[in-house]
Amino acid sequence: MPIHFASTEAIIPSVEDIFQVVSDAPDRGPDHVGRIQEQWRRERPDLDTSPQGVFGRLHRLADRLREELEVEFRRHGLGEGEFDVLAALRRAGAPYELAPGELARHTMVTTGAATKRIDRLVAAGLVSRRVRDDDHRGRLVGLTEAGRRVVDDAFTAHIANEHRLLAPLNRMERQALERILTKWLGAFEE
């Protein structure tokens, strides 16, 4: 008996769907990375250069995407690091506070780097520091009202920007890409 879903959004693409997406892609000839691979295949036919196609394109794409994301952060007066701190505090939920060490873990930076980011945000009036109520030796960093407005506006614009950047891919391609990247990343984070 077939399974019926309330929404097609819940369907995860199969391997066959992924191959269909790839086979439907227009052939535009070799890109920059493809041309480099062709040169290596000519010069070193004894090597399988196929990993270079994945890594070269991921590297080039990551650079381009980072540039595109940072433009939106700058529109809100933030760098990527400051946005990460504000977003971590906002995701924490009310009262939007975390200890500096927790912030460092949530933003995947050293405590020293987190301190520098926090200092800049305190100076901008977007976060504040206070002594913990339950342990006067501990400190908490929290969003100010201005910080909450900035991060909410920046996050709304950030998500719209991410949708724009994904626009060349259809829903099935996005789902397939997310599934592949999740699997690959999971192999390193286990």
From TrEMBL:
State the source organism's domain of life.
Answer: Bacteria
Query: What UniProt keywords are attached to this protein's entry?
Result: DNA-binding, Transcription, Transcription regulation
Q: Domain (HTH marR-type): give its ranges.
A: 51-186
* InterPro entries xrefs: HTH_MarR-typ, WH-like_DNA-bd_sf, WH_DNA-bd_sf
Q: Can the keyword Transcription be found in this entry's annotation?
A: yes
Tell me the GO molecular function terms.
DNA binding; DNA-binding transcription factor activity
Q: Which PANTHER family match?
A: TRANSCRIPTIONAL REGULATOR, MARR, TRANSCRIPTIONAL REPRESSOR OF EMRAB OPERON
Kindly provide the name given to this protein in its UniProt entry: MarR family transcriptional regulator
Tell me the organism. Answer: Nocardioides anomalus
